[in-house]
């Protein structure tokens, strides 16, 4: 296992940060590393909003469900799927452009996710900790208004970056045999049952709060209700009409 793989397999979400700024120029370096990620047809369909105003940070804490580390981290970034820039660039060539295609939504979302993960890995390689904030999608319209996001741009998630002020355990992952399948999908019920036992043990023994639950039980709130039902109408309003 080389140093890169060791870094990747040691990821933890950090939610407590030291009151310490990043060195001058490091954030730009992290973004440059993000830009080196794979991008569909070199579209680079992403933009990143760096949020520095304390008032905006405080509003984002409320909009993301009270996640106070959004305000307390050294840097808070909002990663946006951005089809505005490539659509306008294509239109300036004189060609008629088609917007709102479902594939454009998928491309932009995948592009920004790949870019953000490069940023996360680069940050961790510098001794920083990160936490993705999917709660940005709890109130995407309000976030868009706060950050002045134009049509064909939508906020996918946020990311807290800073120096860790705690050392959480590494959360177990599903076994490779459950996710790496050969030639056909097959059944992974036995692997999931074993993983439920693994996660129950993890939750019972972890520092900073234990609970009597397993992986399957933790998934229930994601599937026993309509999760963020506002997202489709919001995306359509943003120009991602999914034609």
From TrEMBL:
Q: Which SUPFAM superfamilies match?
A: FMN-dependent nitroreductase-like
- Where in this chain does the entry annotate a coiled-coil region? none
Specify whether Transferase is a keyword of the entry: no
Q: Which residues form the Nitroreductase domain?
A: 9-163
Is this entry keyworded Translocase? no
UniProt cross-references to InterPro entries, sorted A to Z: Flavin_OxRdtase_Frp, Nitroreductase, Nitroreductase-like
Question: Which UniProt keywords are present, listed alphabetically?
Answer: Flavoprotein, FMN, NADP, Oxidoreductase
Per the record, the similarity remark reads: Belongs to the flavin oxidoreductase frp family.
Q: What is this protein called?
A: Oxygen-insensitive NADPH nitroreductase
Write down the species: Vreelandella gomseomensis
Q: Which gene encodes it?
A: nfsA
């Amino acid at each position: 296992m080389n140093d890169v793989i060791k870094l990747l397999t040691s990821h933890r979400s950090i939610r407590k940060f030291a009151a310490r700024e990043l060195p001058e120029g490091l954030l730009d370096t992290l973004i440059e590393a993000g830009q080196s990620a794979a991008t569909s047809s070199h579209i680079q369909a992403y933009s990143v909003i760096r949020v520095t105003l304390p008032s905006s940070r405080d509003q984002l804490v409320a909009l993301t469900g009270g996640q106070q580390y959004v305000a307390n981290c050294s840097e808070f970034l909002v990663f946006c799927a951005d089809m505005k820039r490539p659509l306008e660039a294509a239109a300036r060539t004189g060609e008629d452009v088609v917007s709102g295609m479902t594939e454009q939504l998928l491309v932009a979302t995948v592009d920004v996710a790949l870019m953000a993960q490069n940023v996360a890995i680069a940050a961790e390689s510098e001794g920083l900790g990160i936490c993705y904030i999917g709660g940005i999608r709890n109130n995407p319209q309000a976030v868009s208004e706060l950050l002045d996001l134009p049509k064909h741009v939508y906020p996918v998630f946020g990311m807290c970056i800073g120096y860790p002020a705690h050392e959480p355990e590494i959360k177990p992952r599903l076994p490779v045999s459950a996710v790496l399948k050969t030639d056909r999908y097959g059944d992974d019920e036995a692997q999931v049952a074993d993983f439920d036992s693994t996660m129950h043990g993890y939750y019972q023994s972890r520092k900073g709060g234990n609970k009597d639950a397993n992986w399957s039980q933790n998934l229930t709130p994601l599937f026993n209700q309509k999760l963020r039902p506002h997202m489709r109408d919001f995306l359509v309003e943003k120009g991602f009409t999914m034609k």
